[in-house]
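Notebook, p. 212. Picked up where the previous page left off. The plan for this session was modest: take the two constructs that came back from the sequencing core last week, fold each one, and keep the raw output in the notebook itself so nobody has to go hunting through shared drives later. Recording the first one now, exactly as returned: residue sequence, then the structure token string.
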Amino acid sequence: MGKAQKYVLLGDVTYPLQDWILKPYQEDETLTQQQLQFNYRLKRAHSVIENAFLRLKARWQILLKCDDCSLELLPTLVLACCILHNICEAHDNPFNEEWLEGTELTELPKPCQPAPAAMEDGQAEQVRELMCQYFESCGEG
């Protein structure tokens, strides 16, 4: 699109729009087809991420009870699990679907109210608009 962009995190509507947090447009009857497509693609990407974290937690169930280790060790533990998980995935190490049992019950609560508008970054709308245009230029998918 002619403008370099930095990395962004994907959030849902409860997160404030920031130039580093990409969130969907608020669903209402005024959304354009382009914005609806953007929301759809963002939702698909978000589900891929959720599935990856679900598989990570299922394979390395120590992540479900991180209260067993010190706070100083926690970042190293999470990083080690991510690295080992990626190695297993890259080498097609079999994933046992039974590992998924019990992982959904440990979901952390998420905010149910959108972030106040005052927390939103005015420049972030330009980032979202660029991404929206980019998604449209990529065609169907």
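Okay, moving on. Second construct, recorded in the same format:
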Amino acid sequence: HIATSLPLPSERDHLRPRIDLIVFVIDIKSKCSLKNVEASLAYVDASFFLGKVCFLVTGVGRVNCCSIEPNAISKLGEAYCSPVLFCELELEGVRVATAQRLLRMLQICAGLVPGFSALSFSLLMRNSADD
């Protein structure tokens, strides 16, 4: 399911499926995009930041069009202990690889991969980013 911001409308709570992963999409050429994500973060339960949230930054292939410093987004990921994925969705190969990576993250967060939990996956992502 896709939402443009949080909180989600409460009138459909009884129909909403379980939420296993929240992907915040940030367009690197839009400061409004970052502000919307920052405002939405207040509506996410703290327990979700233990492996069930990630930030997807799009438009990184056009460095000259950036309105947001990549470092600011990396700091956001650090502050919320959540992975940050940078990609260029206009390139088909990158788009497919990113979709596959997000799908694998979702499978882990939903508990569909034996031996991995969302928390252990999150720690693995953080450790590999620190190297």
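Notes on construct two before I forget. The chain has four helices and three strands.
Flagging for discussion at group meeting.
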